[in-house]
Amino acid sequence: MNDHPIAARGYLWTTVEVAVLREHYAKPGGPALCAQLLPHRGLHAVYAKAQALQLVAEQISRTAGRRFAKLHPVTPEIDRMLTEGCARLTERGAMGRLALSVGRPKWWVSKRLMELGLSREPLKNPPWTRAEIAIIEDWASCRLPTIRAKLKEAGFARSDTAIGVKLKRLKFDRTDPDVWTARDLGALLGVTGKTVCDWIARRGLKATRTSGGPFGVMQVTRKDLRAWLRTNHAYVDLRRVDQPWFWELVL
């Protein structure tokens, strides 16, 4: 137990202590100096009392950004190259090529272009046409690479990411194009979910049960379905299946 009266918890600050705080707190290293001159007041107590007295310590100079400024100085020649190259930033990859030409990282070039008032609008994908939407609607139940290939056959170039985003905005279900529940698979094959369950129970169609014990949902993978169709295609009525999905599946 500390028997020094000043060290007692909640002990009021004396006039001498406050005077020391006012004299030294604003100096360089003031908080640490005050804690040293007032050994029975910890650094946290010094900070708290200074805040109550509205005392401000001297700000320590920061070094953030100085290292990058030395590594990547601004020169009139680089600014000239950026000004001339800004007009060519209409193609994808142009920013990387411009950064390579001036010997600076892309983030630095982008920041410098903004400082020079030369920032450009981000490149956007062209709007979707009705023909593209019709294609992805017809092939929505297939995998993204398949939909991309069908768009390419029609003369359209879209990435898998762009197709996935568009399908989500159109509210198509893209949970997993390679796994189906018995009900979902039945809808694609033109039968009921009970028929698919019968194929699983008595016709050799492999399926796995999701978590939930005996009450889990039965799921069939693309691989197992294709293997089963090789020897059990007679059970499937081709007139009732989802045509784009089925032919993409078997072919």
Structural commentary:
This protein has 4 domains: 5-52; 69-115; 130-169, no CATH class; 179-250, Multidrug-efflux Transporter Regulator, Chain: A, Domain 2 (Orthogonal Bundle). It has 14 helices and 3 strands. It has helices at 15-24, 30-37, 43-52, 66-71, 76-85, 94-102, 106-115, 130-138, 144-153, 160-169, 182-189, 193-202, 222-232, 243-250; strands at 179-181, 208-209, 218-221. It has a 3-stranded antiparallel β-sheet. α6 (94-102) crosses α7 and α9 packs across α10. It is elongated, with a radius of gyration of 35 Å. Residues 1-9 have low confidence and may be disordered.
Briefly characterize the structure.
It contains 14 helices and three strands.
Sum up the structure in keywords.
14 helices, mainly alpha, disordered N terminus, 251 residues, 4 domains, 3-stranded antiparallel beta sheet
Q: How many distinct domains?
A: 4
Continuous helix count: 14
What percentage of the residues does DSSP assign to strands (E)?
A: under 5%
Rg measurement, Å: 35 Å
N to C succession of SSEs: HHHHHHHHHHEHHEEHH
Main sheet? Answer: 3 strands, antiparallel
The tally of beta strands, per DSSP, is 3
Structural class: mainly alpha
Unreliable stretches: 1-9
Net shape: elongated
**Spatial sequence of strands, sheet with the most strands:** 1-3-2
CATH architecture call of the largest domain? Orthogonal Bundle
Determine the fraction of residues in helical runs and give it as a percent range.
40-55%
Distance between the termini: 84 Å
Mean pLDDT across all residues, rounded?
80
Annotated CATH topology of the largest domain:
Multidrug-efflux Transporter Regulator, Chain: A, Domain 2
Overall CATH class of the largest domain:
Mainly Alpha
